[in-house]
Amino acid sequence: MPWRAAALWFASLPLLGYRSVEGAVTADFHCLDPLRLERFLERRRAHPTFPLELSLAENLMEVLRRANSFVPSAAGSILLDNPADKQPERRRNTLTFIATFGDKSEGLLGDTIPAEHGIAGRVYLTGETYLTSDAPTDRFFYRGVDHQTNYQTHSLIAIPIRIEQDVCGVLELINRQSAPCYSREDRNLLEIFAGYISISIQNVLDARQAQEIAKRDNLTGLFNDRYLHVALSEAIRRCREADHDLALLFLDLDYFKRVNDTHGHLAGSQVLREVGHILRRMVISHGGIPARYGGDEFVLLLPRRDLEQAIDLAEEIRSTLVETTFSAQAGEIQPEPLHLKGVTCSIGIATLKRHLTEDLSLTESKSTLLRLADAAMYVAKETGRNRTAMAGQLVRRRRDSTTATSERLQMMVPEA
What is the mean pLDDT of the chain? Predict the structure, then answer.
């Protein structure tokens, strides 16, 4: 029986390296390119060059090929909702054509239809398979796609695609070949294929999540030092190729041990987490990469930013930390609010064009940039803390902080 052949095929995965099945309807299969496919994998934030995106695209096209080989059809598509714009009220979502085959189908890639329109929308909203032998007369059929592609749909079957229990899309085949309409056996086969689409997507999401966890600091959510070294090497290479500058900031919190000694390590961890949130917001808005280097030390990588821009951001960070009340309410780590004020930091800066020579190798450039920024941070420490220094020189404050040394010590004492 065909379903047994389908089961044997699933047992033969992985899917790469498709060969045509005898008797199958030949067609060109298309899928969104990996970068466009990225936006539909944002259930977990990850680096946009994650390599499994290509294999997912191949898998989606392969599923369509195999579905077509077992249930020959003139055209077909996979539609998914966009998790970045997903609404609690499901009918307000849209479905996007992720993979297609058939005449003129390539032009549909990336197009969207409202989730409340058409047979695909009905399947998405109800979670139930739907088939029709005469689409033009079906009350749920949406003619907009046929008009757009100058195509004529006759028979159609649509199967829900699920991630765990949540319907996230639809597998749709159009115009059954060698039969007047889609049968119950076709339905059973295609539900198997829809299940494999779910598995393919979930596997990629799980792998992306695992990769994301591996490169993140568990406490702050910033990148860890292991990923920083990888990102820094890549950023230096790209900036050199494009003749762009690159700035690196080495940041260390001042007198931070006093927070732990006075209020306990839970309070210290809460402050570190909140500092991480501040740095992420401020650095990412400048196109940078924030990382926790260890303890209360942070490294901020700013591709395409020069020394002056780096100094401006450093001074803005210093001012923001001073003005922030930390542990202002019960947090995930610290169970009761402490209202800590006066947290300051010392920052060292080094840049690619100002402080490095072009004859250095990539590895030498990375280690030298880190070493120079670290040394500059210690200059800021030794000249009074709560300052910014660049490699070889102390920076005159752009904004004179309203807090003096006595105020910095307030982080030992709750705000009155």
Answer: 85
